[in-house]
Amino acid sequence: MNSLDDWLRAAKRDRVAGATQRSAVPLSAELRAAAVDLASNDYLGLAVDPRLKAAAVAAIEEYGCSARASPVVVGTLPVHRALEAGLCILTGRQSALVFSSGYLANLGALTALSGPGSLVLSDAHVHASLIDAARLSRARVQVFRHSDLAELENRLRQRSEVRAVVVVESVYSVLGDAAPLAELSQLCQAYDATLLVDEAHGLGVTGLGRGSVAAAGLAAARHVVSTVTLSKSLGAQGGAVLASAQIRDHLLNQARSFIFDTALAPAAAAAAAEACRIILAEPERVQQLFQVASALAAAAGVPQSAGAVQSLPVASAEQAQILAERLRAAAVLVGCFRPPSVPDGISRLRFTARATVQPEAAAAAAAMAARWARQEGAA
Ligand SMILES: Cc1ncc(COP(=O)(O)O)c(C=O)c1O
C-alpha cells in the first residue's frame, strides 16, 4: 500500500457510492445493428454514409493513415485545405483552421485569444473543454450565470482589463437550450470584447445545418469566433476554429494545441469535407432530425429543446444509471448524464435526435423511458 493506492481506492469508493463510476463497455456488433441509437452524436447519420466512407478510403490511399507531423512542419495536406474551404462554404465564415479534435480547437482558440492581462467571462454551462481552456489561459476568469445578459454586461462594464473574451455554446450540450447569440454579440461589440461560440451542437443542426452563428447573421462578424467539432453532425473526427483570416493566422502561430499536435488524420479530414458538402446539398436531413426531436420530446413529456438533445431529468445519479442500463438491455441506447457532466447537478437521460432514426421508434423508446422513470419514482 502507498499513498497513491489509498487515494485511488478512496476516489473510486466515492464514485461508486455516488453512482458516478463510469465504464466504457464496447458496443457489440449485434447491439450496434439492432439498437435504437439515441445516444451517439452522429446527428445526421453521416458517420456511416457510403460517400464519407469512400472519401476517407480515397484519402488513405492517397496520403496514408496519418498526417505524420504537426501542421506547421509537413502535416498540412491538400485535404486539410479542402476541409477548411468546405467549412467556410457551409458556415459562411471567412477562414477556418483545422485541429485534431474539438477539444483541442477550444483549448487553442481560447488560450491564444486571451492570456495574462485579459479577462475570460465564461457561461456557467459551458463544456469541460472550455473550462479547461479558461484554466490554461492564465487570464483572469469569471463565470457568469447561465445566459444571464445583465450579469455579463455588469462584468464587462466593470472590468479593468483591456481585452475580454466571452465564452458560450450556441446550443448547450446537456440541456439543449440555445444561447441568445444576437444579444451576446451586441454586448461584446459594445464593450469591445471577443465572443467565442462553441458550435459543437449547432453545426449541422441549427440554421438548416449552417449553425447558429450563420443563422443569427453573424458569419461576417469579426469579433465572433466559432469553434466546431467534426465528430458530431459531420460524422467524422476533428475540430476547427472559424473566424477572420487575421485570427486564423494568429492561431496558426500561437495556439499550442495546433502547433504541438499531429495534424488531423487525412481520412477524417476527407470525410468531414464530404459531410460539409452533403449538409448543404441535402437540407432534408436536418428537417428529419427535427421531426425526430419533436417526437422524442413529446413522448418523453419534456419541452422540445433548440437542438438535437432532449433531456429527461431524473431523481438521482443512481436512477439515471439504472434506467440507462435497463434501456440498453431493451436495445435502446441513451446518454446517462450525471455529475460532473451536468451543470446544474440534476442527473438526466439524454436522448439525441438523429436523422436516420424513425420518429416512431424514437417516440416509442422515449415513452418507455419516461414510463420507467415514473414507475421508479424518478421523474
Ligand atoms: C460543447 C462541446 N465542445 C467540444 C466538444 C469536444 O469535441 P471533440 O469530441 O471533437 O473533442 C464536445 C464534445 O465532445 C462538446 O459537446
TrEMBL record:
Reactions catalysed, semicolon-separated, are: 6-carboxyhexanoyl-[ACP] + L-alanine + H(+) = (8S)-8-amino-7-oxononanoate + holo-[ACP] + CO2
SUPFAM superfamilies in alphabetical order: PLP-dependent transferases
Query: What Pfam families does the record point to?
Result: Aminotran_1_2
EC numbers:
2.3.1.47
In what pathway does it function? Cofactor biosynthesis; biotin biosynthesis
Which cofactors are named for this entry?
Answer: pyridoxal 5'-phosphate
The keyword Transferase is annotated on this UniProt entry: yes
Stored InterPro entries: Aminotrans_II_pyridoxalP_BS, Aminotransferase_I/II_large, AON_synthase_class-II, PyrdxlP-dep_Trfase, PyrdxlP-dep_Trfase_major, PyrdxlP-dep_Trfase_small
Any one Gene Ontology MF annotation carried by this entry is: 8-amino-7-oxononanoate synthase activity
Could you tell me which residue ranges the Aminotransferase class I/classII large domain spans?
A: 36-365
Which keywords describe this protein according to UniProt?
A: Acyltransferase, Biotin biosynthesis, Pyridoxal phosphate, Transferase
- Provide the assembly information: Homodimer.
The record's comment on protein family reads:
Belongs to the class-II pyridoxal-phosphate-dependent aminotransferase family. BioF subfamily.
Q: What is this protein called?
A: 8-amino-7-oxononanoate synthase
